[in-house]
Structures are given as C-alpha cells and as structure tokens.
Amino acid sequence: MNVLVIGGAGYIGSHVARYFADRGLKIDVLDNLSTGTKDNLFPDYSFFEEDILDYKAVAAIMRRGYDAVVHLAAAKAAGESMLKPEKYAVQNLTGTINILNAACEAGIKKFVFSSSAAIYGEPKYLPIDEAHPKEPANFYGFTKLEIERMLEWYDRLKGLKFAALRYFNAAGYDPEGRVRGLEKNPANLVPVIMEVAAGLRPHLDVFGTDYPTPDGSGVRDYIHVTDLADAHYRALLQLDAHAESFAVNLGSERGLSVLEILEAARRITGRPIPAHITGRRPGDPATLVASSAAARKLLGWQAKFSDMETIIATSWRAYAQHHSHSIH
Ligand code: WQD
C-alpha cells in the first residue's frame, strides 16, 4: 500500500511514519516543518516540504498515486486556540479541506484522521466512550469535531472511507530511540517535565492540587505514541479490508495524576525536577479517562507501551540524548 503521511515530521506523525515504514508500507511524508523537524525524518522514504494551505502543491503530490492518506498536520494547543481562533480555523479547517479535496481529485478513498478527545469537552461521565456528548470546550476541539462531520459528508458524497482516531494524551518516544526531534515550546505535561529534568526550564508549574481526585492534581489518560502509531496501522488495514468509516477513542483506559507522573519522573530520571503548585489552568477538567473498548473490538488494538514507566523512560531517553550538554 502507498501511503502519504501528512504531518509526518511532527511528534506523532514521525512515530506513525517510522512504524509504517518498519512494517513494509511504502510511504512518503509531506510536512511544512512549522512544528515538525527534519530530525524526525528517515532516509527510507521521500519527504516533500509543502504547506497544506497550498492547494496546488498538495494536489500535485497526491497525483503521484497513493492508496491512502494519513493526516496529522494541525495546530494542537487548546489554550492558544481560544486566543487565536483564526489560526486554528485556517490551519486545521482550511488545511484539511484542501487535503480532502486534493485526495478526492486524485481518487484516493482511504483517509486516517488525527482527531482528539477534545471533541467531547467537559466529561459528563467516565470513562468517555464514543457515544459521549460532543461539546468541545475549546476552539481546537471544535475544529476537530467539524472535520469529523466533514468526513461523514465526504463519505456519503464522495465515497471517501475514513478512520477518525480520537487521541487522549499522547506521550512517550520511540522505544528504540530512533525519533530524535523534540517538540518546540511544549505546553503538555510530560515534555514540560522533561525540559525541567534536562535543565531547560527552572521548574514545573502544577496547575492545581484542589481537584476532586485522589491526590488533588489533574488526572489524564496518557497513551504512548507507539501505541497510537500501531492504531493508525491497524486502522489503515481495517479500511482496506472493509471500506467502512469509523471513529474510535485511543487511550490506555487508566488515569494518572500530575503528581504521580512528577514523582515517577524524579525517580526514573534521577533529576530533582523542582515544582511549584499554582492555580488551576482555566478550562482543565479534573479527570479525563477513555474507554477504548471500540478500538479493541474493531481493530484488535491494545496499548502495550502506555504504562507510566515506559512513557517516562522513553521520553527521557529522547531528551537526555538531545540535551546531554546541559545535564550534569
Ligand atoms: C495534562 C495535565 C494539566 C502542564 C491537551 C489538550 C488536548 C489534547 C492533549 C490534542 C493537566 C497538567 C500540564 C503543566 C500541569 N491535545 N499540567 N503543568 O490539557 O489534558 O490536553 O493535550 O489533541 O486537546 O487540551 O494536556 O499535557 O496540557 O495537561 O500541571 O505545565 O497536566 O493541568 O491536568 P491536556 P496537558
């Protein structure tokens, strides 16, 4: 199968690209390197530096002949999306519409889309399954939900078969240590902790310890990127075998608190990792945990690398090798 991985130089995309190439899929990567990096690319596939806002460029690449598109190119900071909705409207909505139209024009019928738990908004019950009400609490989540709805129409009108993969909190790095690029200016918990451990930030701000959770800090469902990559692979095989669209949650189904992760990171890295308890971050729910029963059933998918040890150890390996000069 020939697959175009859009956003394949980014954090999740690079793991997906590596995982696909490891399994013998013929892939190409398209990325504008706005948040992705060349450090995340490998010599066993081609790379096209193009922007998804450039319709002609995207359409020309699609005409090279692909069986499927995996689309992971998006802006993804929920907080920023509330301050700069226009950026998210253009990059996520316009960019995806370009990709969809170019894919349809080129006759591509299989589409794997990076969706998000952010489409659900404040949890009404836990764990969150796919039937949970979809009321995004931020503009980022709104863009992902709107794209899912677009995909349903393109399925009906154009015969495009899609998999919408709703990630919970992606974390960790390639267990074999091959993906080397680090995220620029991360805002997510695990990379922030890694930057503190590596001496790049003075401390972690813990956003609230007064939540109704066992230790008072926020609880999330962290899912290793290699488990996400495996789900993309299985989603593609599923679309190939059955030509039926679907949407599934991808989570470990287990909640970890900020303080648990902080303690584990101190132990695993051997670094002190100073932390200050600050106020809650606006818009943060207390607890988010997935039900991934649908992905298990439909794809035979099961998280294998998403225990806390593996998530932190693989992340630390990536950060430690990158920043060895600043770690004493
Ligand atoms: C995790 C926990 C914070 C940073 C976001 C997006 C979501 C999805 C995943 C893409 C929370 C706490 C964090 C810090 C902290 N993105 N925290 N100090 O908010 O669950 O989800 O990323 O699809 O749409 O909203 O992830 O990593 O920011 O936070 O205490 O410096 O860590 O309060 O409890 P979040 P996160």
From TrEMBL:
The keyword NAD applies. It catalyses: UDP-alpha-D-glucose = UDP-alpha-D-galactose. CDD domains: UDP_G4E_1_SDR_e. Belongs to the NAD(P)-dependent epimerase/dehydratase family. It is an enzyme of class 5 (isomerase). Residues 3-251 form the NAD-dependent epimerase/dehydratase domain. GO terms for biological process: galactose catabolic process via UDP-galactose, Leloir pathway. Its EC number is 5.1.3.2. It comes from the Bacteria. Pathway: Carbohydrate metabolism; galactose metabolism. It holds the Pfam family Epimerase. Homodimer. Keywords: Carbohydrate metabolism, Isomerase, NAD. This is UDP-glucose 4-epimerase. It comes from uncultured spirochete. GO terms for molecular function: UDP-glucose 4-epimerase activity. Its cofactor is NAD(+).
